[in-house]
């Protein structure tokens, strides 16, 4: 299978649409991590993503009869743009079925490349099902985003370029993983020619379908998939990719949202490219690998796989960057509610940069303050700040890894109720489309009262929403049954320390 895959890669037709992208040095990162770090620039493709390679190669294998009937795909991301451009270059009709929650910028980008866009459903599964209905009706040929040997071969041409462009020693290549098409093609070629090079997959920790499959020895379906890195938000690795690379991948590293955001900043500082979060995924994994293994003096290569990000998302990415670099600690500190307390607290912090400070009077005895403090990477300095505050007599709660605090509480200073009442607090992901809130409200019983609501647009397909509800005692055991009928992802936060310190 390996030899057959390599042969397909070498015969792949991609350069009628794609360009050979350069490898950019990353001098700042290289100095920081004591290794030569290089970035393969797939963000420089005509569609700002590597996906054009696989889409065009797949279409180049179609018969004239298939081309005459047209092609179709269900996609809300980079595959849609890649297929639209490939079809336009070949003069083939293309239909892209996208969920209704797809950001308008991506819909317009696909239409601008000549494809017909059909908006259907609130989730990818509904869009994919509708695509199959259109295939049955019109005879279109489905072009999959990753689970196809010709798509895999097209993506594998990136590895051909890397080994030709950098002939010297390479310790490891870090590859982002969604459905597995990219890593399967690249791993096949790298291991066939240079088996000493480590091939390391990188996944978002909330969509790690390859790591789960390797652990189980077979493909598994994740119960839930995170949506922050939309380009790799896949619940199950593809059958064809897994068959090719299951024995070729040396390791899989998972990274957090904050670590991806930090990598977006790193790429910008070294190349002035603005990567999408999934585009920076492999660099985040590279950094984690260096920190975990202590490797020095080696050549490490990662892939900037795409730059199709909404401008609106950059604010949220910037907010999380310092946390991803472990350069900021988010703390809840209790100080006495009396004159001079704030000044004394600042003296205890010392000359450190305070990045954020939220406070509102709520109690005549004690004040709970939400504070961001600049610290050195690694975690030890953060613990040092906490220990210093505790030694000075301040109760401290570390909120640095608390999603509720980072997504909502830091934007909700004050707002405590005047009198105590019981409420259930949940965090949701709402689809970004008209009617999503009304759909949520209509599924709640009429005798439930909304006591807290916070929403921020992050320029993504899903919005993050915090909801507090006064629920009659008889319904308290059945709250989540109502939520499950709505179909939105949710997390219970009623016991979250950040909520009790600042909102309860």
Q: Could you describe the largest sheet, including whether it forms a barrel?
A: 6 strands, mixed
Name the CATH architecture of the largest domain: 3-Layer(aba) Sandwich
Mean pLDDT: 88
What's the oligomerization state? Answer: single chain
Give unreliable regions as ranges.
Answer: none
Overall shape: it is globular
> What's the arrangement of strands in the largest beta sheet?
1-2-10-7-8-9
Q: Please estimate the helix content.
A: 25-40%
Total number of domains: 4
What value does the Rg take, in angstroms? 25 Å
Q: Provide a count of the helices.
A: 20
CATH class of the largest domain: Alpha Beta
- Residues in β-strands, percent: 15-25%
Structural class: alpha/beta
The CATH topology of the largest domain is given as Rossmann fold
Would you report the number of β strands?
18
How far apart the termini lie comes to 60 Å
Structure, briefly:
The protein is of the alpha/beta class and 504 residues long. The chain has 20 helices and 18 strands.
Written overview of the protein:
This protein is an alpha/beta fold and 504 residues long. The protein folds into 4 domains: 2-49 and 148-322, 3-Layer(aba) Sandwich (Rossmann fold), CATH 3.40.50.1100; 51-142, Rossmann fold; 326-401, Biosynthetic Threonine Deaminase, domain 3 (3-Layer(aba) Sandwich), CATH 3.40.1020; 421-502, Biosynthetic Threonine Deaminase, domain 3 (3-Layer(aba) Sandwich). The chain has 20 helices and 18 strands. It has helices at residues 2-10, 27-33, 51-60, 64-69, 78-90, 104-112, 124-138, 149-165, 181-193, 209-216, 239-245, 257-271, 281-293, 313-324, 341-349, 380-391, 403-407, 436-442, 479-486, 497-502, and strands at residues 23-25, 36-41, 71-74, 94-98, 116-119, 141-142, 172-176, 198-204, 251-255, 299-304, 328-336, 354-358, 366-374, 396-398, 424-431, 449-456, 462-470, 489-492. The strands form 4 sheets. Strands 1-2-10-7-8-9 form a 6-stranded mixed beta sheet, with helices on both faces. Helix 3 (51-60) packs across helix 5 (78-90). The longest helix is centred in the N-terminal third of the chain and has 17 residues, at 149-165. It is globular, with a radius of gyration of 25 Å. The mean pLDDT is 88.
């Amino acid at each position: 299978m390996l030899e057959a895959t390599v042969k397909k890669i070498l015969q792949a037709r991609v350069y009628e649409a794609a360009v050979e992208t350069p490898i950019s040095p990353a001098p700042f990162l290289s100095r920081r991590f004591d290794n030569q770090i290089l970035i393969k620039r797939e963000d420089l493709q005509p569609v700002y993503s590597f996906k054009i390679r696989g889409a065009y190669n797949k279409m180049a294998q179609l018969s004239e009869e298939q081309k005459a009937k047209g092609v179709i795909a269900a996609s809300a991301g980079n595959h849609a743009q890649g297929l639209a451009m490939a079809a336009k270059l070949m003069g083939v009709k293309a239909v892209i079925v996208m969920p209704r929650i797809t950001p308008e910028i991506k819909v317009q980008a696909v239409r601008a490349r000549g494809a017909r866009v059909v908006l259907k459903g609130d989730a990818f599964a509904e869009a994919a099902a509708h695509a199959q209905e259109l295939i049955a009706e019109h005879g279109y040929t489905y072009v999959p985003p990753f689970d196809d040997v010709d798509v895999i071969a097209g993506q594998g041409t990136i590895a051909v370029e890397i080994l030709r462009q950098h002939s010297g020693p390479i310790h490891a290549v870090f590859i982002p993983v969604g459905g597995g098409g990219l890593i399967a093609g690249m791993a096949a070629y790298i291991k066939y020619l240079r088996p000493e090079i480590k091939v390391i997959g990188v996944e978002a920790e909330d969509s790690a379908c390859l790591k789960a499959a390797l652990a189980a020895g077979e493909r598994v379906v994740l119960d839930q998939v995170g949506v922050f890195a939309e380009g790799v938000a896949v619940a199950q690795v593809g059958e064809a990719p897994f068959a090719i690379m299951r024995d070729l991948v040396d390791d899989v590293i998972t990274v957090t949202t904050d670590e991806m955001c930090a990598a977006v900043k790193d790429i910008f500082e070294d190349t002035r490219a603005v990567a999408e979060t999934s585009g920076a995924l492999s660099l985040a994994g590279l950094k984690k690998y260096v920190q975990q293994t202590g490797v020095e003096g080696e050549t490490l290569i990662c892939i900037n796989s795409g730059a199709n990000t909404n401008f609106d998302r950059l604010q949220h990415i910037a907010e999380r960057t310092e946390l991803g670099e472990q350069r900021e600690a988010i703390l809840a500190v209790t100080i006495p509610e009396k004159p001079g307390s704030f000044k004394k607290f600042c003296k205890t912090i010392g000359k450190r940069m305070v990045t954020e400070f939220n406070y509102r009077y709520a109690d005549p005895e004690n004040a709970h303050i939400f504070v961001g403090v600049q610290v050195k990477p690694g975690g030890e300095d953060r613990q040092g700040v906490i220990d210093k505050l505790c030694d000075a007599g301040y109760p401290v709660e570390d909120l640095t890894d608390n999603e509720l605090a980072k997504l909502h509480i830091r934007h909700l200073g004050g707002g405590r109720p005047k009198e105590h009442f019981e409420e259930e607090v949940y965090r949701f992901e709402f689809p970004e489309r008209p009617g999503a809130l009304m759909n949520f409200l209509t599924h709640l019983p009429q005798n439930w009262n909304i006591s807290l609501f916070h929403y921020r647009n992050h320029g993504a397909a899903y919005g993050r929403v915090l909801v507090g509800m006064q629920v009659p005692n008889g319904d308290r055991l059945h709250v989540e049954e109502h939520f499950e009928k709505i179909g939105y992802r949710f997390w219970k936060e009623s016991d979250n320390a950040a909520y009790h310190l600042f909102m309860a």
